[in-house]
Design goal:
The chain is built from twelve helices and no strands. Helix 4 packs parallel to helix 9, helix 6 runs antiparallel to helix 7 and helix 7 runs parallel beside helix 9.
Length: 277
């Protein structure tokens, strides 16, 4: 009897009233639906996925084009990150933030967004070449899908060749067991992409080292001054950070940094033979 009274007291609490009302409403709704009979049941939508054959070549080509587009969209993030200027830019910005010692300022979202916009700016001649020579002719049914893919890959390969070191390319050609190519067309894309990535990392680390040097000098000077004054318990970073920020602002650091990074990729228009670059 005591347990029953305790259960009744718990049910009177506000926390139990709303769940009990919801449960009773669902039970009443389900009973009402079943009481209407099978002929008057509320229809529940269903989704059916089926595979069938077709003798229409145009319909098959459309399905293949849709699958190709979905595949490209799935691989688009990897293509954007690994086959463009994004890797070098985001690594350099990361080194810059660490050299200044500003912890999470600017935040990762700002660095990645700025790197993406600079990537679009640098790769714009490549996108224009792909749109003019591959995308538009393919949409106008002037070329086949395979030819459109080859035309779209050509400017990307030319951009990667511009930034790839011969030493890195020879490394992957040797690992793949390929013979020494006579020209660029004989270099497989499967060897060019990893060679391009490690070349970008090499260039980014080199630029990052050069960025570290002036800030490292400031840290060493501040640490020496604090040590000579006997202030060994005071972290040198707290004193050197304002001086590094002042130096960065006085030399207009973001203008110099972004301008140097963009110019480090060379003239992409000249490589792709685009007039007016």
């Amino acid at each position: 009897m005591t347990r029953i009274l305790r259960l009744g007291a718990r049910l009177k609490r506000p926390g139990f009233i709303l769940p009990m009302l919801a449960l009773l409403s669902l039970l009443g709704l389900s009973q009402g639906l079943w009481a209407q009979g099978e002929g008057n049941m509320v229809p529940i939508p269903t989704v059916n996925i089926s595979l069938g054959g077709s003798d229409d070549p145009d319909r098959i080509a459309t399905v293949i084009n849709i699958m190709f587009i979905l595949t490209v969209l799935a691989l688009a993030p990897s293509i954007l990150v690994m086959m463009t200027s994004f890797v070098r830019i985001v690594v350099i910005f990361g080194f810059m933030r660490q050299a200044m010692g500003t912890q999470q300022t600017p935040p990762n979202q700002v660095i990645i967004s700025l790197a993406l916009f600079l990537t679009f700016y640098i790769m714009l001649p490549v996108w224009q070449n792909i749109e003019a020579n591959a995308f538009k002719p393919f949409m106008a049914n002037e070329i086949t899908q395979r030819e459109a893919f080859e035309r779209a890959l050509h400017p990307i390969r030319e951009f990667m060749f511009l930034q790839t070191r011969e030493k890195d390319l020879a490394l992957f050609m040797r690992i793949a067991g390929e013979d020494k190519p006579l020209n660029k067309t004989e270099v497989p894309t499967t060897s060019l992409i990893p060679a391009f990535i490690i070349s970008e990392l090499k260039t980014a680390f080199t630029i990052g080292f050069l960025l570290y040097m002036p800030f490292l000098v400031i840290d060493m000077v501040v640490a020496s001054v604090l040590l000579s004054m006997g202030m060994m318990m005071l972290p040198p970073v707290m004193i050197s950070l304002p001086f590094k920020l002042m130096l960065f602002v006085l030399v207009d650091g973001w203008n110099l940094l972004v301008g140097s990074v963009v110019r480090s990729f060379g003239d992409v228009n000249a490589v792709l033979n685009i007039p007016g670059g």
